[in-house]
Amino acid sequence: MKLKKAQIILILVAALFLGFGGAYAGVQIAEPEASESQNGTKTAGNADGTELSGDLTKVDQAYDLIKQNYLEDVEDEQLIEGAIEGMLSTLEDPHTSYMDVETVDQFNDQIESSFEGIGAEVSMVNDLVTIVAPIKDSPAEKAGLRPNDQVLTVDGESLEGLNLNEAVAKIRGEKGSEVVLKIQRSGVAEAFDVTITRDEIPVETVYTHKETIDGKETGILEVTNFSENTADEFEEQLEALEKEGIEGLIIDVRGNPGGLLNVVEEMLALFVPKDIPYIQIEDGNGNKEEYHSQLDEKKEYPISVLINEGSASASEILAVAMKELGYDVVGETSYGKGTVQQAVPLGDGSSIKLTTFKWLSPKGEWINETGVEPTIETKQPKYYYTYPIQAEESFAYDQTSEGIGNMQVMLSGLGYDTGRTDGYFSKETETAVKAFQTDNDLDATGKVNQETAGLIETQLIEKVRNGDDDEQLETALEELYQ
Q1: Which residue segments constitute the domains of the chain, with CATH numbers given?
Q2: Catalytic-labelled residue, pool 182, 337, 353, 463
Q3: N or C end of the chain, less CB within 10 A?
Q4: What residues does 51 pair with on adjacent strands?
């Protein structure tokens, strides 16, 4: 059913002036109030009672101009959504966006249960679609995508000029289908292609295991996302570890892109005593509100938190609160997202995801765009930071390139001595390649073609996913009881 012009303008006005009720989970849209103008006609009003700007007549004029004079027919829905997206784009906030009905469904799936796609949280940074973090055990993680990777094209089509929702729609797809992303990675001169087979992405968010260090049982809780059931899962698994008599705890939020605010609040309430806030929330007027737990005292055992550049939003809320409580934070500086968004429904199934608050640390620090700095900075082995080998023509003896240096780091990480990692394909590198090929039933040519390159990548990704040589975790375990 087509909307009349007056209805369209009213929807645009409602999108501009939203009133919010409740805390950070449930929100309400306030109806525009009517007020008397000087000529006795009714005009729409803001939620705070002020009249709407007369400049909104431009919206009416633009609508008339397009509908009456544009060469082709234009659907009302297209104009409405374009107007909303245009308003939001002027805010220059990568975390504020319009979500149509389909996008809202996908958003809810990701929070609640499962969805199909590559399994990566993305954001818009400097007009480029950027990976915040791949989800644990997802196709994106298995393919080697990393935080801060920039996606330039999808199946050969440029993402330039698309908003975040449009870009995500191209990246997502049905289970079993393939997508080719062209990736630009910091520190790598040339962009490279990554082929990913989409799959169902279950939102299992808490993983538990134990390590023994100096005879002491240490619980490790890895949290991969802050979804609806995460706090309950976390508390249940923490209680199980405590019943088993753990003497220390490590909370691992590396690569965790965040999620629901109320969920991380519930988790922090298990650790932060009531005499200090676990978070502060600040509105646009600078008004701050502190939030406290009902906990009487800290845990009796030592705790550390693991973070990296893929730890964002709710992960940073947890990390900085624990840091200011006196616990160690181990790893690398986090992503740096210090704002709170609310998904506000517009009444037709669509929503606006709008930045409404800042969140501050217990001591009032705002980490936006700076991140949480670890108390113990620790990087992973060099091979953790490599990228897929682009060997369209085989790498061979006496060649030199950045890609060869990357390949040498990968082979060294798999235990083959290449003699150097500076990008020169030496005789020692050739010998290492032959050894790898022999061990994997390949022709021992000493040259790295696509087949050899693919197997090197597969084995290295598996090694990283298994947590081999995890120096950040090892450091956290070593320092926990110091």
Answers
A1: 5-90 (no CATH), 114-202 (2.30.42.10), 206-377 (3.90.226.10), 392-465 (1.10.101.10)
A2: 337
A3: N
A4: 45
